[in-house]
Amino acid sequence: MRFKDQVAVITGTSSGNGRAIALALAAQGARVVCSDLVRQARTEGYETDIDVDTDELIRRAGQQSIFVKADAANSADMQNLVQQAVEHFGRLDIMVNNAGIFTTLQTIVEETEEDYDLTMNVNAKGVWLGCKYAITQMLKQAPRADGCRGRIINVSSIGGLVGLALEPAYCASKGAVNNLTRQLAVDFAAHKININAICPGFLETAMVRPALDNPELKAHLDSLTPWPRIGTAQDVAKAVAFLASDDAQWMTGSLLTVDGAFTAQ
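Request: output the structure for the sequence above.
Response:
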């Protein structure tokens, strides 16, 4: 198992990408600390076993997992999240900053300051806090046999690479995540802490289900992506697992697109 005896903390695990990432890392041996504002999955999601909490699914599969309630944009919550991982499992090997939000499609004229502040707080500040407390812990603990002190994966978006129509605050927040990822990679490469980001394209998740349930919008999204299907949370989870593994040992500061060639156009 790729992650045997390693400890992973993942934010936003109740549904969507976070749930898929947690299950994927646990299936490969990781002890997983699940975290979200609420433990229960969003019922409008695409997941199987939607009525079973993510941490419970992991335990049913014979792996170790706990749930810690945390607001990704709250400093005390994020510090406690990392502390709980260390108290329960002894260390922190993998941090996945996945929690994120999207408000609504609108131009900057209609977008309110409240929309902007909320989006930036969760999507940008939340990643900043997750990195801050994860790196603080990783610097304290003994490195693994290969010298690696830990791996951090930030879940960003193609919206951090290109301008998506009607998404000003969202694109700004994900652009911040991308450049923060690069900056931190430079600062902590000498300490052998790998810090990378995933930039997913359009996905089948609860966050975008209202659009996908609209036949016209669904057809439009399908037409935007060269690959002949919309992405899934499992596509993201596989990419995160790669970046969390020894196969990505010399990758840091990278922005890995998982978008069916959307940004290659």
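The mean pLDDT is 96.
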